[in-house]
Amino acid sequence: xxxxxxxxxxxxxxxxxxxxxxxxxxxxxxxxxxxxxxxxxxxxxxxxxxxxxxxxxxxxxxxxxxxxxxxxxxxxxxxxxxxxxxxxxxxxxxxxxxxxxxxxxxxxxxxxxxxxxxxxxxxxxxxxxxxxxxxxxxxxxxxxxxxxxxxxxxxxxxxxxxxxxxxxxxxxxxxxxxxxxxxxxxxxxxxxxxxxxxxxxxxxxxxxxxxxxxxxxxxxxxxxxxxxxxxxxxxxxxxxxxxxxxxxxxxxxxxxxxxxxxxxxxxxxxxxxxxxxxx
Length: 279
Fold this sequence. Notes:
By secondary structure, this protein is α+β, with helices and mostly antiparallel strands. The protein has a single domain (3-11, 19-276), classed as 2-Layer Sandwich (Alpha-Beta Plaits). The protein is globular and about 60 Å long. It is built from eight helices and eight strands.
């Protein structure tokens, strides 16, 4: 047996092989006018695969876009997450295998170092990081007793999603916010929405490239929770529901909603929706 074959066997022989989400990478970036097509071609034709999907313990990925009409709906107007709140037009997300979270995150950084050395990071000056963070998976809440489960979230053909970002008052308060979200808030709210499931994540303290941290605030990562609503309709069709999320969270006294935005699915190998980014 070759050294490569033995190394591959070692990857698969150790740890869990039960289907399940343990971690995620969630990254949203702002791509400037005039750079959308080159960014989409690079990311969809190289980085999505070489930078993430080829990595051990990355089992699912998806790409999304927030058009001008969806960004105009975002809340709140004054956000500590990003300023202006309309920044962040591309969203890329990946799920890591349960039981292999640390390996998943380490592999991301290793791949990033290699692609940086190979000058394959498309640093053309036309984009900046809005939110790029490693996430620990907290769990899912479902609207329906049967249907897609959390592991299917990116493979099922949902046409849209909503990304919601909440901050607890302090890192010590985050546990209570998470419990309330998973046991009270989401089970009560989800049946009133056009989403079939919500995935919840705990943001890890920032680890990664220096240039990324220079382009986005990271000081609140220790108190941050991220919700991902998987939708069966265009987000605008159900926006009154999502616009009211901020007041519902505020009434709990457990946190603040710092960002809620709708995104449409990007179709692989196409430029669909790109012409709607700025009009």
